Amino acid sequence: MSFARQVLASARLDLAEVRRSRWLVFCAGAYLVLATVFVLVGLRESTVMGFTGMGRVLLSVCHALLLLLPLLALTMFAPVIGRARDDGTLELLFSQPLSRGAWFVGVSLTRYLVLVTPLVALMVGLGLYGELALGQAVPWPFIGRALLISAALLAAFSGVGVLISTLARNPGRVTTYVVLAWAMGVALLDFGLIGVLLRWRVDAQAVFTLAALNPVQDARMALLSGLEPDLATLGPVGFYLAHHIGGTALYALGLLWPAAVGAGTWTCAYLSFRRGDLV
Amino acid sequence: MRLELRQVTKHYGRRTALDTVDLTIASGARVALLGPNGSGKPTLTRAILGLVRCDGEILVDGQPLGSRAELAARLAYVPQVTPQLGATVDEILGAVVSLRGLTRATVVEIAAELGLDLDRVRRQAVRGLSGGMRQKLFIALALASPVELLVLDEPTASLDAAARARFLARVAAIRDATVLLCSHRLDELHALVDHVIALADGHVAYDGPAAVYLDARQAAVIELRQRGDNAAWLTANGFSPGVGGWWSRAVSHAEKLALLPAALAALGGGLDDIVVRDTDRIDLEGTFPSPLSGAPVPGHSPPPRVASRETLEVSRG
């Protein structure tokens, strides 16, 4: 049987599992709640100072998504192998003519698409709502940019999640690693690192480099650099990098580095999965 | 399919599950894999299935085990503990049918023969089925595939008598495929296998004909009631006194054949009644010497270490 058919068979089975566990509904619900809150806040503020525009609402939504997306990706991917091993899925499927690679690709693609698809629907829906219902000028290029950056960020943390899944067999350990990975992503933004810099007098270049290695930080800088490349919004690292490598390079960094982290960790996870025992 | 295992070793941390196992399973052979808990049976079957990585070499038809997926296309497997899958019967059926290129109708037909109506339970989660229904589902999935190797790990543990009989008949009718059966059930051993591999502590303790293995474990209890003064003869021949003038002794198959004519001759007219109950006594560790006779099976030496013993006795009437 061809690799593509094997991928399709495992993807179909995993999609059913994802639907059954209501992940799709949960992701869509989380995105929708976030968007609704920001739209309502934007509309309420409009009574005081005029509606600040869909651009501002979308930016706020994206800011919040930067914190939410890594957590969603980690919690969706990190338990996948342990759970499949525990409930006998791996033993059943791998006594069939199904390669490890096909299953790994099928499951990864399915879950990644479950994370991305509702996000695309949400952003496009928000844009259409702003344009049609509120009569706003919608910044479609920004929506496209935000979607690409979000997809790259999801790829990064999906890779990290699946790596956790292959390395940690104990569910308790999986949870610990998920929390640690998420905390490192969202806490070690440049503001946190500046604190480190001041506290321990660490070299500024080292702090900036550390911050730039964080996919969340890169995604954030890439998102903001297209709009307001000033110190207040970009933060010290973003401001420094924006003035040294330029806004376009910052955008490229925000896209490529998370994607590279995702690809790297996914490859490591696959190699580990291929070498290890299935049951 | 011919399988050769050379120096196959598997460690789980510090524990050795398989220790330099060498064995050959001939093409078309029907082999029982026996042994107590912890002897390495599941690890050995999983190594053959490619589910666990081992040191050593596994040859399939003389060639090194290549792609696990390619091997899996040539074998079918019924797991000991049927998976507690959240997926529905239909989803699992769809996946296996698609991966193996089967028709759904074939699986449905075999399941029906075992007493499982797949159309009725198609929307149910596999974990929501009873143990017996799950086992029937996985047997149907395994038997629907035309394969060269059938690996059955306690396949009828949860089946009712009728389904078990149909399963045994179906497997017995399979020709050309090699059958590897892990079982603690004597009826399955008698019906399906001609060769036994017994494991103990990760070693091969016995590898030979099933008849020799089972005969060495056949036993009987001779009970007789006599009215004369034959206590001296009975005591000298190992009988123990019971109530109501009954004496009894457990004997091996060979001892039974020798002792019965001797008892009839010695006790003669003083014999009131005699009962002989045959039992199959299988030492599930597959270890030697035999629990009854103490005599080792020719050509095989005992394993180096024995941790515990479990004995199964099944009355044969």
Describe this structure in words.
The complex is a heterodimer of chains A (279) and B (317). Chain A is an all-alpha fold and 279 residues long. Chain A has one domain (3-275). Chain A has helices at 3-20, 23-49, 54-77, 80-86, 89-93, 100-132, 140-167, 171-187, 190-200, 204-213, 215-225, 231-245, 247-275. The relative contact order of chain A is 0.12. The model of chain A has no long low-confidence stretch (mean pLDDT 86). Chain B contains eleven helices and 15 strands. In chain B, helix 4 crosses helix 6 (131-143). The interface between A and B is medium-sized, with 32 and 36 residues.
Properties at a glance:
heterodimer, A: 279 residues, mainly alpha, globular, B: 317 residues, alpha/beta, Rossmann fold, 2 domains, six-stranded mixed sheet, five-stranded antiparallel sheet, 11 helices, 15 strands, elongated
SSE order and pairing:
The complex is a heterodimer of chains A (279) and B (317).
Chain A: H1 3-20, H2 23-49, H3 54-77, H4 80-86, H5 89-93, H6 100-132, H7 140-167, H8 171-187, H9 190-200, H10 204-213, H11 215-225, H12 231-245, H13 247-275
Chain B: E1 3-12, E2 15-25, E3 30-34, H1 41-49, E4 55-60, E5 63-64, H2 68-72, E6 75-78, H3 89-100, H4 104-114, H5 118-121, H6 131-143, E7 149-153, H7 161-173, E8 178-182, H8 186-192, E9 195-200, E10 203-209, H9 210-215, E11 218-226, H10 231-236, E12 240-241, E13 246-252, H11 253-267, E14 271-283, E15 311-315
Parallel strand pairs in B: 3-8, 3-9, 6-7, 7-8
Antiparallel strand pairs in B: 1-2, 1-4, 4-5, 9-10, 11-13, 11-14, 12-13, 14-15
